[in-house]
Structures are given as C-alpha cells and as structure tokens.
Amino acid sequence: MIDRSCVIVVENLPVPMDRRVWQEALALRQAGWTVSVICPTNERHPETYEELDGIAIYRHLLPVEARGRFAFLFEYAAALFHEFRLLWRVWRERGFTVIQACNPPDLIFLVVLPFKLMGKRFVFDHHDVCPELFEAKFGRKGIVHRVLLWAERLTFMSADMVISANDTYRDLAITRGGQDPKDVVTVYSIPDKSRIYRLPPEPSLHRGKKFILGYVGVIGDQDGVDHLVLALDHLIRDHDLHDFHAVVVGDGPALASARKLAENRGLSDYVTFTGYLNGKELLRQLNTFDIGIIPDPVNAYNDKISMNKVFEYSALGIPSVAYPLTETRRLLGGAGVYAQGETPAELAHACATLMQDDVLRIRCADEAARLAQHAFSWTREAGKYVAAYERLSPSAPAPEAVRIERKR
Predict the structure, then answer these.
(1) How far apart are CA 135 and CA 300, in angstroms?
(2) N or C, which terminus of the chain has less Cβ within 10 Å?
(3) Tell me: the pLDDT tens digits for 123-139?
C-alpha cells in the first residue's frame, strides 16, 4: 500500500487562521492524503493539539510577535526548536513521506534536512519573498538582506518541489533559486467559494453612511493601514467627502499604532477597527463593503505579491482602490482604480473618483464579479496543488481534486 502522508509546517499564523494553508490541507485530505500540520498557538487557538476535519494540528508556543531585527531572530530560533521537536512527534505518531514548509522564514529547511536524509520529500510553499520583505520593513538591504538571499537559495536547493504563490514568485524560483521549471508549480491563494459569498445586505451595518470603505487582512508594518488612515483624512480635508465610514477587519502588530493614528487625526467617528473576525461575522462585514481598499504601499515586496484582498474583494463583486503595484494591476485589471502616485493623498484621490462616479463604480464591481467567476478558481488551483503532490508518489491513483477539474 502506498503511503500518502504529509506534514505541513507554517510559522507565521495558526491553522485554520492561515486560509491558504488550511485550504491546501483540506485539498490533500480530500484527495486521500493523511495530513498533519505544525503551527503556532495564539489567543484564539491556544490548544497544542486538536483534530479538525480529519487533519491533525500540532501547535507550539511562540514569544510575542516580532517587530525588530533581533526580535525576529529570537522568534525564529524558538519556532525552529518547536518545529523540529514536533516533526519528530508527528513522525512517531502518524508518520509522513512529505514535509511542506511554508515561509516566512526561509529557515525551515534546517529542520527538514535530517528527515531528507531519511528519504522524506520536501515541498517548499513559497508564500513570501523574504529579502524584499526585509527591505520593505526596514528600508535597507545590508548584511541581513544578503543572509536572507542565502537562506532563500538554500531553501530552493533543498526542495524537491516548489509551490509558488504567483507567477512572479515562480520566475524567482527558477532564476534566483536555480529550480528546474518542471519542479515549480504556481498555486494562487484564491478563497474557496464555499467559504466566501454574498449575503443579504444589512442596512444597519452602514451606520447611516452611503459608503463603507473596507479593508481586510493582516495589519503589519508593511501592509499600509497607516496609508489608509491618512487617505481617510485627505478624503475629508481635500475632497470634502463625509458620507462614508471605514471598516478595518484584521489584527496584527501594527493595529495599535493604526488606531492611535486615527485618534490623533480626529478620525475615530470615521473608522472602526473590528479586530480579527471569522465565519459568518467576517462575511457580514465584508458584504457591507462598497469599495475595497488595498493600501499596501509601493515597494519591492508589495510590487511582487498577490494580495489576498484582490481575490476576496472580487469574490464579493467589490470594486477596489489600490496603489499602482505591478502584480495587483495584473490581477485586477479593470476591476480596480489606481492611485497616480505613491502617497495617501493620491490614494484618497483614486478613492474619491470611485465614490463620485456611479457608472465607474458599477462597472468596476461587475468586472470584479466576472474575474471571480471566470479567472479566480480555487478548484483549479487545488487541482494543480494536489497534482504536484501526486508527482512525489507517482503510483498513487488520480486525486479527486484533479478528476473534478478535468470535468470542467
């Protein structure tokens, strides 16, 4: 009997909060794989072990989420210790033939190497471009940036298969990472349509305003929620627009500073920070959005990444406002309105354009819905993902996800 078992290691978010990892785990389980996950705990998921939907989740403690360079080293060292400890535990209790490591950081290969010597296969799920992420966070390159490039290269060299979060990442895996193109598969982080969908509108959530300007996602230093807050200030002061309320859905290390900025600018009546939401409460809030804001600023990191917000807003037919980021523009096309520059004032101008032009707003909303219907399909992405795994066990029967896609 063929052993089709795997363990997925992710450091930056617990599962099932990490939507991409959870959807991947479910796709593998539905295709007949035995799936285990190693991830950190947090306040919402404090359990060190639980089983959800047939997937075994092993969690470990981590220090407070890092923001400085030395704090990152401490966080990553603690994570590697626990990941190595739990890999041995999973191997003893459930076994695995494949280890998938999800970055950041690009250091998990260190705990994978002893298992590769035992014949286990290594899949690198390339979520983030860490050298560019460092540059975006700290505004510099230097020796740490070079070390990150070195760690990235070693991760690629160690991997038997690379799952890239977009085609830009795939090109980096081939050019910067030296990977064989046939061993690099692009899988976009598109939400499963069974989990994000339209609900009947609830007028009370509009707080008496014509527009809800929405943001959903992690609130980190590089995510631009401060740009969003400043853009709201410009909407009021430069464009004399007041008939709106902003809703920021999410959590992260920069949440407190974003709240403080809103208070200092006198915007407390114009913006609500909901914190982390999930399930129906998340859907209720997302369905109030009239315009989705993508405030991630222009830098080498954001220019390359595929924002989850692009897929989530589009799934609900929400028009978007964003900075002119290469990957964002490529994905959204005519479903977005783009700032003409890189400042919050220009982001506000783009938002005002969409608020004041009903025809443009409706056209962008229709284009977003069309993209979600025809271009953004998790079924297709899951099929590619499971097929990549099946190449590591070539005698296994065709997975259900692949059979479904062939019928389309």
Answers:
(1) 8
(2) N
(3) 999 999 999 988 888 88
In CATH, what class is 5-190+377-406?
A: alpha beta
- State the residue for tokens 């506000």: 348
Q: Are 123 and 161 in contact (CB under 8 A)?
A: yes
Q: Whole-angstrom Cα distance, residue 120 to residue 293?
A: 43
Please name every residue paired with 124 in a beta bridge, in sequence order, or none if there are none. 101, 162
Q: How many residues does the chain have?
A: 408
Looking at residue 397, its pLDDT comes to: 44
Cβ atoms of 165 and 140 within 8 Å: the answer is: no
3-state secondary structure at position 164: strand
Q: Dihedral of CA 253/169/277/47: which sign?
A: negative
Portions of the chain given CATH number 3.40.50.2000? 5-190+377-406, 203-374
Q: Is residue 52 within 8 Å of residue 14, measured between CB atoms? A: no
CB atoms within 10 A of CB 238: 13
Look at the domain 203-374 and name its fold: Rossmann fold (3.40.50)
- DSSP 8-state assignment for residue 306: -
Return the axis-axis angle of helices 142-158 and 130-138, rounded to nearest 10°.
160
pLDDT digits (tens, 9 = 90+) for 298-343: 999 999 999 999 999 999 999 999 999 999 999 999 999 999 999 9
